[in-house]
From TrEMBL:
It comes from the Bacteria. This is DinB family protein. It holds the Pfam family MST.
Amino acid sequence: MPTHVVEKNVADERGTLLDFLDAQRGGIRRSVLGLTDEQADAAPSASELSLRALLKHAVEGERGWVERARGLAPEDFEESMAQWQASWRPTEEETVAELLARWDAVAADTERFVLSVNLEDTFALPDAPWFPQGAGVSVRWLLLHLIEEIARHAGHADIVRESLDGKTAFELLAEQQAG
């Protein structure tokens, strides 16, 4: 992680978790810094991953998990999988700028939700073969899972961006701070 999280409120677990989540979002956000949509669509590695696809997936993944915690996610496995697959395919209208703006709104919604509930509140996991049947998890688990997932994809984004133009996460951080 090229940045160190400095807690806004050292005594507050919820704030600390939100700060770590935001730091991981920053890794993906910086990966598209200064790129055109066409550059963000390039897949320069052995993987099919592009930065715009990673960005959309991170935005939709966060939105989807918060919806699930609210009890609003699809219960049907097939519908849930279709949404997951679509999260990897940005449409022409989903430009980098539009996706970044959407993520701002999703991040604000995540924070409002997390601040409105107890970290111990639980919700059901999706009905999927990789989760125990009927399992529930806490809002704390949700935040830790979002940190884990977004961090994983921020690492992917680092590799894709460096493969595109050689810029590392540290260089992008310096550009962001300078600009």
